[in-house]
């Protein structure tokens, strides 16, 4: 049996930027699916978060959490 990982969070915002502003984007993924006989040693890993920040900035201007990994206890759908 396969258990699905979480889909991750949704996040949005409206930002005023000037022409020529450079942004950096890192895109995460959904959590991994747990295949076969899932147990605490073989559960799926979580997906990474997604981040947007102004080039050269120390902190992102927008962030969203990645989806959690599936486990043998992930029987509901969909997990976020």
Helix content: under 10%
Mean pLDDT: 76
Kindly state the number of beta strands. 3
Spatial order of strands in the largest sheet? 1-2-3
- SSE sequence, one letter per element: EEE
Approximately how much beta-strand content do the residues carry?
A: 15-25%
- Separate helix tally: 0
Q: Structural class of the helices, strands and pairings?
A: mainly beta
Bulk shape = elongated
Describe the protein's topology:
Elements (H helix, E strand, L loop, with lengths): L22 E4 L23 E5 L7 E3 L16
Task: Please give a handful of descriptors for the protein shown.
80 residues, mainly beta, elongated
Written overview of the protein:
The protein is mostly beta strands and 80 residues long. It has a domain at 1-9 and 29-49 and 66-80. Helices cover 0% and strands 15% of the residues. The chain contains no helices and three strands. A three-stranded antiparallel sheet has the order 1-2-3, with no helix packed on it. Strand 2 and strand 3 (62-64) form a beta hairpin. It is elongated. The two termini are 20 Å apart.
Question: What's a quick, concise take on this entry?
Answer:
The protein is built from no helices and 3 strands. It is mainly beta and 80 residues long. The chain has a domain at 1-9 and 29-49 and 66-80.
């Amino acid at each position: 049996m396969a258990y699905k990982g979480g889909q991750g969070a949704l996040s949005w915002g409206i930002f005023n930027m000037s022409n020529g502003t450079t942004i950096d984007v890192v895109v995460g993924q959904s959590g991994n699916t747990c295949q076969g006989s899932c147990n605490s040693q073989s559960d799926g890993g979580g997906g990474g978060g997604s981040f947007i920040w102004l080039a050269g900035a120390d902190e992102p201007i927008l962030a969203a959490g990645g989806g959690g990994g599936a486990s043998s206890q992930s029987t509901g759908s969909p997990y976020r």
